[in-house]
Amino acid sequence: MAEYREPHLPLPGNDLDSHSIEAGNQSLMRQAPIAANEYLLSAIDLIDAKLGIGYAKAHPELIGAFMQTSAIEMGTAVIARAIESVVEAITTASDKTSAK
In 1-100, which residue ranges form alpha helices assigned H by DSSP? Predict the structure, then answer.
């Protein structure tokens, strides 16, 4: 079995573990292939760990599905966090208005 490698993600409390996206379009464009590469490496490692060494290479469609699922999950989490921030802002504004 292949040895699983932890993804290179920021640790909780790290400056990179933020609830806001402050990067510009150019930075986001540079980050996209880095994220895709991380999804690719994770897909190969995890698929091979579960199904045997070489299985991922023999089934590139599984790698693609894994990468797509990872990207969708990340996008969903970012959107959910943004919605949470909006709800919090609306609640705070409503509380301030009600207190007057």
Answer: 25-51, 55-58, 60-99
For 100, the 3-state DSSP assignment is coil
Q: pLDDT tens, 10-61?
A: 555 555 555 666 778 888 889 899 999 999 999 999 999 999 999 999 999 9
Please say whether the beta carbons of 65 and 18 come within 8 A: no
* Domains held by the chain: number: 1
Does 20 reside within a domain? no
Tell me how far apart the alpha carbons of residues 91 and 65 are, in angstroms, rounded to a whole number: 38
Sole residue written with tokens 């969903």 = 76
Q: Which of 21, 14, 20, 68 is nearest to 40 (CA)?
A: 68
Q: Which domain holds residue 36?
A: 29-99
Domain-located, residue 95: yes
